[in-house]
Design a protein that fits this description.
elongated, 5-stranded parallel sheet, 10 strands
Length: 333
């Protein structure tokens, strides 16, 4: 059985790396991919390992601590000790590859050293990730896509705004799952019957599904993803119906990635569509959202006035977000 070996930070893994690993895997019976990591890297090693396992399920992905300098001999010694044997073939697209393979007593295969097949590097991506999303697999793409959540009381234009922003920025948006859930729930309800109640478990289900849909959409989004409310907002709705927050729902919300909140003020006419809670609750919801968001680290932009003005305010805020993307640190591929 022929054993191949690839080592790299994959920081982040991109389609050049995918080409390298696919070519290597095609030529051997077993391929081991080693991922060195250290705490100073902005993408945790566990995350990169999970990405590579998703992209290359037929390879062995090993995560190791990056505690050595860029010394080829030291890495060769560490690799032989870690594996407990010498691989038959080392694959790389770097200049250190031939020496590294020789020190291991393995054959070396160079793949796309000049980046002609896939003209990209991890350094380029870290410097301007949103410019190179097409070189990333969906799971990696989702990491970099900016997420904007439209949040606010009922009948303040959230759904329309999220849809219009997605059209403006040519990207994806996620509808409010709670509304879909409620529509199904009252599908068999008759006006003479008692109004259906909300159970705590329903809010957990809503928060979980809302986040799942966001995560799925982020894999397809173009630079930015818009969401009509999120799991955090679901926690506030739980507070509205049960006079307290549910730690389970808040735990889901805490895992959500949000880069910007657009908070819609309740200063437009309320429209009752037969599904909404009522105008009387709008001011309370608005105050709670404002109070809770003020205690967080995520930027919040307040949208007010006519819907046309809100859209203009939102577009300006999103453009600032996209223009101010902070480059990641520049360690070598």
């Amino acid at each position: 059985m022929t054993v191949g070996f690839v080592v790299g930070k994959f920081y982040p893994p991109h389609r050049g790396h995918k080409h390298l690993i696919n070519e290597a895997r095609r030529q051997v019976d077993r391929l081991i991919v080693m991922v060195p990591h250290h705490p100073g890297q902005t993408i945790p090693g566990e995350v990169r390992k999970a990405w590579l396992q998703e992209i290359h399920p037929d390879c062995e992905i090993d995560l190791v601590a990056d505690e050595l300098a860029d010394d080829t001999a030291e890495w060769a010694e560490f690799t032989a000790r870690y594996l407990g044997f010498a691989p038959d073939v080392v694959f790389s697209s770097e200049d250190y590859g031939p020496e590294f393979a020789q020190l291991l007593g393995a054959r070396h295969v160079m793949i796309d050293r000049e980046r002609l097949t896939v003209p990209i590097s991890a350094t380029q991506i870290r410097a301007s990730p949103l410019s190179y999303l097409d070189y990333l697999e969906p799971c990696v793409r989702a990491w970099y896509v900016k997420r904007v959540v439209v949040i606010g009381a009922e009948s303040t234009g959230k759904t329309t705004l999220a849809r219009m922003l997605a059209e403006r920025f040519e990207t994806e948006w996620v509808r409010e799952f709670a509304r879909e859930h409620w529509e199904r729930k009252i599908g068999t309800w008759s006006p003479g019957d008692p109004a259906p109640a909300w159970s705590p478990d329903e809010f957990l289900e809503i928060a979980t599904e809302q986040q799942r849909r966001e995560d799925a959409a982020a894999r397809r989004a173009n630079r930015v993803l818009f969401a009509d409310t999120n799991a955090f907002a679901t926690g506030t709705w739980h507070e509205r119906y049960h006079s307290s927050r549910d730690p389970r729902v808040d735990a889901v919300g805490a895992r959500d990635k949000v880069d910007l909140y657009l908070l819609t003020a309740p200063d437009v006419p309320f429209v009752q569509d037969g599904l909404r809670d009522g105008e009387h609750i709008r001011d309370w919801m608005d105050r709670r959202f404002a109070e809770q968001l003020a205690n967080g680290k995520t930027p919040v932009v307040r949208l007010s006035g006519p819907h046309e003005r809100r859209f203009e305010q939102a577009v300006a805020a999103v453009e600032r977000l996209l223009d101010n993307v902070t480059p990641h640190d520049h360690t070598r591929r």
